[in-house]
User: What shape does this take?
Amino acid sequence: MKTKIRNLAVFVCICSVITLLLAVTNFITAPIIEENQNAAANQALMEVMPDAQGFEVVDISTLTLPATVTEVNKETSGLGYVIKLKTAGYGSDMIIMCGVTNDGVVTGAVCLSSNETLGKEKTYGENFKDKDAAGVESVDIITGATKTTEAYKNAIKDALNSVVILGGGSVDIRTEAEILADNLSAAFPDGEGSFEKMFMVEYLEGIDAVYTATNGKGFVFAVGEQFVGVDTDGTVVTEGVEDATLFTNALAVIKATVTEDIDLTSFPDLAKHVVSAKKTASGNFILETKGAGYGIKGGNEYHPASGEYIIVRVAVTPDMQILDCITVSEAETDGLGDACADESFYGRFAGKTVNDYKEIDAISGATLTTDGYLQAIERAFNAVKTLNGGAENE
Assistant: This one.
């Protein structure tokens, strides 16, 4: 019994000594770690604003700045600001630091960290140096990394807008989604702020997109930057529309649309890759097809494949033009291949034909996903050929 008590006492003493040593170590090293972190942060600040004399952190808790802005540092001599932003391209947590003078000129920009598969995008920030707002607009998006570089470019715009706000000015800092929502609500107030984009199965002349009010009271037709609300009775409710014919005609086409299911049992080879098929009274086809992306063809011991196909819904005319396209389901890699579910990707296929549908930017870092998606589109075109009386093929 005495031995157990003695051993316990020794153990407690050892633990106490270790705890004390850790506390002393932390006391000594914590200031050093903090100093190193501050030095690294200051180095990044100086990198994007080399002529700075020093910086002080700005309290942004009471300011209305773009949602991407996470930190603002004011240059102490009055040169301008360095804005830290968090945005996302195909991946997540892309951290960008951007320096902007008080008169709205970018002094430098750098990506501090990213989950993107950065190639030329790594030095993309160099394109913005010495650019003002107009100059930033002229910077090209990198082909093959459209979403990543577009997000980067938008972050620079947010930094420029932030400096305008910090200087006492005003600027529209709404996101594209917020602007769209406001336009839809303004065009059709009875929609109560809730709309869904319609999947187009008929060609609507002069109409770019149609949104339906989820409460069933009407529609909003988009033509360029114009949004026009029409109720279910065909009355145009948006003020200032001089000629309602375009919109009433489009609504008539929508109301007259009838689809019929196609029995695929007569096409066994086709049915291997076509999940479902419908046909409109006008002869257009609505097909859901499978493509073997990374979920089927990829995978290793680190990132196993999901075993799932990419499912794509495509509306195709008899003369082989895509009316609309949307991703029904996918299980591709998060932050990479799952970008195939973004409208910024699948929306590119609308208007494409059997001859040019492959002429789209690939998803950066997701070649297998892109190839699988193109395969699903190809199978939709092949299905149209077969269902129109052509030879059945894969």
Observations:
- DSSP finds nine helices and 14 strands in the chain.
